[in-house]
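Sharing a chain and its predicted structure for anyone who wants a worked example. Both blocks are below, sequence first, tokens second.
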Amino acid sequence: MKNIILSITLVIFTFTMGYSQYLGLKGGLNFSNLNIEDNEGQLLLGYHAGAFLNIPLSDAFSVQPEVLFSTKGSKTTYNIDILELEGESTLRLNYIEVPLLGVLNLGEVAQINFGPYLGFLSTAKFDLEGDFAGSDFENTEKLDQDFFNGFDYGLAIGIALNFNAIQVGARYSHGLAKIEDSPEAELFLGDAQNRNVQAYIALRIGNYD
């Protein structure tokens, strides 16, 4: 196993010797939802922030690992006339996310990025607000993480545009892991998985030409 790892390291080192690596800092908005059956949830506005390293393997292709803090979840609007009850419920799932992307350069400006990601659940919260019989109410509760799958994974694809040190982009990530990990969570979430669209801006640091 050590010989295999050493061989892979040497191959990557050989490929990248003639190319300049660069770091990046990025942040932006998340538009997330859960694919809960028979539930038309609304997009939940959140954010992500983190860093990445771009490792060129050729003029046209590079590998880009990232480490991000990313907020996901879903928002649902409810209205029960018979009880004079209406409002919104929001499930917020916060992750430390590690995408490992391949980056295909389309000329000097545009890039396509694609690959898998791993996510590690950091916190889970439930917000409930609305109106009951003319009285407003609001409640936020931190949920027991044991109710949820602590590990998420999926696939991501996106596009980026580079303007010297500034990069702007958008990315879609499609979760493949079930969110729930308990009978209580399964009752409300079923086999729900994460869905997320990101819009971001990044600062490239180093020799990115």
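Comments welcome. The first helix runs from residue 2 to 16.
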